[in-house]
Amino acid sequence: MKKVVLVGAALFACVLGAKAQEIKWGAKAGIDFATVKVKMNGGFFGETVEASESETGFFVGGFAEIGFSEKWSVQPEVLYVAIKDASMLSVPVLAKYKVAEKFNLLAGPSLNYNLDWEDEKFKVNLDFGAAYTITENIGVSAKYSMGFGDIKLNGVFMAVEYKF
């Protein structure tokens, strides 16, 4: 747990230390539709078996949007994610590209620390999605988070965002 917090804090400090044009802070909350896929050996003939379970959950947290140019910014986030019997801390670091005045594309890694799992507590996912600005302070976003490894946590995350 301490390692994930330290890694997240270090990434956040590095991003904040970079020369930025503008920094905006905000909060976000939303719903997630997640699927946990587990690969295991031990099928009837010793083959690899994959089991999956889909659940709906929620997430809440904060973010910073650090502008580097008219079109590009970086958006680090710190989120608490709850899915049925599992919860985790997620630290996505997303590149944000402004396609149109109110429409942005997002992509980047997310560092995840599973608070309830005994094995494979630390996972790295690849996130990509889009965001739409409704007003200067309010926006919505949707992204897909793709997991890797023998235990994968994939999901669609839809959020409402408020910039201070």
Helices and strands, in N-to-C order? HEEEEEEEE
**Rounded radius of gyration (Å):** 17 Å
What do the pLDDT scores average to?
Answer: 85
Strand portion: over 45%
Structural class: mainly beta
What is the 3D form?
elongated
CATH class: Mainly Beta
- Our count of domains comes out at 1
What kind of sheet is the major sheet?
Answer: 8 strands, antiparallel, barrel
Task: Describe the protein's architecture and organization.
The protein has 164 residues and is mainly beta. It has one domain (2-163): Porin (Beta Barrel). It is 10% helix and 68% strand. It contains 1 helix and 8 strands; from the N terminus they run αββββββββ. It has an 8-stranded antiparallel beta barrel with strand order 1-2-3-4-5-6-7-8. Strand 6 (122-133) and strand 7 (138-146) form a beta hairpin. It is elongated, with a radius of gyration of 17 Å. The two termini are 29 Å apart. 24% of the residues are buried. The mean pLDDT is 85.
Blueprint of the fold:
Layout (H helix, E strand, L loop, with lengths): L1 H16 L4 E20 L6 E20 L4 E12 L2 E13 L4 E12 L7 E12 L4 E9 L4 E13 L1
Antiparallel strand pairs: 1-2, 1-8, 2-3, 3-4, 4-5, 5-6, 6-7, 7-8
List keywords for this structure.
164 residues; mainly beta; Porin; eight-stranded antiparallel β-barrel; 1 helix; elongated
Question: What is the compact description of this entry?
Answer:
By secondary structure, this protein is mainly beta. Helices cover 10% and strands 68% of the residues.
